[in-house]
Amino acid sequence: MTPARPATLREVAEAAGVSPSTVSLVVNKKKDARISAETRRRVRDAIRDLGYRPNALAKTLVSGSSRFIGLVADAIATTPFAGQIIHGAQDEAWKHGYALLIANTEGNSDLEKDAITMMLEHKVRGILYSTWFHRVTEIPEALREADFVLVNCFAAEDGVRAVVPDEAQGGREATELLIRAGHRRIAFINATIPAPAKDGRLAGYRAALDDGGLAFDPALVLEAYPDQEGGYDAVPALLALGATAVYCYNDRMAAGLYDGLRERGVSVPGDLSVVGFDNQEVIAAHVRPPLSTVALPHDELGAAGIRLLLGLDSPEESIVKVECPPVERASVAATDAAFTTPPDAAR
């Protein structure tokens, strides 16, 4: 079937018995124009009857801005958290009358430059620039021509607006899940790869121990590659520590740990309580027992980026840290100490 030809502004004018300029004034809601209520009604009726849609690009060229916000990502649409930042940003943008223009560049600098240029040509309100994992990033030169906010990444230079997960707060939450359950010898398996998450999650672990009156023991901190194989390979060293609980850098590592513990007849949480990080639901909610973890707030990162871009939030610092909420499932068991420790002792 041949699609129907859209109605033109001139056809609306003819149907309403007015000039095209009068239709344009009504369409653009020029309230100060000297047009009678009856004429406005005839124009609106003709627009409805003909199914006329205003030319958004033409309006953009006249006004100098559009109702679009750009989102440029290096690989966000192909990660385990596919679409969560996009979903959060899109929902928040819709609330304020904007739609997203999305470009997934897969780290290709030429494609990235072309995507940003296209968005600038469409006169977007601003651009969110996001990376698939929390890290420091270089700001593309083309991006500096726009109003922009970094999401899930930050720049080395001062004053650049960014929204990132609060890794230290998340690490604290993960460790406190175990402290509140009465555990006193808690291991932490950190990543081998340098990243803000590695430093922040360790800092949170140490802060929670300090708040709980527990001494930090460097021997209880192991490192492994942050995937399932890394967690599996860390099991012998972990069991040699005599810990009653372990907090893992991420959920994939915890899943590998489950496999290694099961092979050795160590039960979770009966013999060892386990907490992950990320809340990668395809893993955390479906391993047995389901994994207690801390969520990376990808939806809120996207939403907060939109609010910051539109000036709806006015934080004191240029880098906004979004809390990582704990998600309690069945991988943590209470010890006798949980029933003898005052409720606020671990806070």
Q: How many H/I helical runs?
A: 13
Gyration radius over CA: 27 Å
Query: How many domain units?
Result: 3
Gross morphology is elongated
Look at the helices and sheets and give the structural class: alpha/beta
CATH superfamily of the largest domain, by name, is Response regulator
Characterize the main sheet.
Answer: 6 strands, parallel
Residue-averaged pLDDT: 90
Order of helices and strands: HHHHEHEHEEEHEHEHHEHEHEHEE
Report the portion of residues in β strands: 15-25%
Tell me the helix content.
Answer: 25-40%
Here the CATH topology of the largest domain equals Rossmann fold
Uncertain segments of ≥5 residues (pLDDT<50)?
A: 341-347
- How many beta-strand runs? 12
Distance between the termini: 67 Å
**CATH-level-2 architecture of the largest domain:** 3-Layer(aba) Sandwich
Overall CATH class of the largest domain: Alpha Beta
Across the major sheet, the strand order is 2-1-3-4-5-11
InterPro entries: HTH_LacI, Lambda_DNA-bd_dom_sf, Peripla_BP/Lac1_sug-bd_dom, Peripla_BP_I
Keywords: DNA-binding, Repressor, Transcription, Transcription regulation
Protein name: LacI family DNA-binding transcriptional regulator
GO molecular function, one term: DNA binding
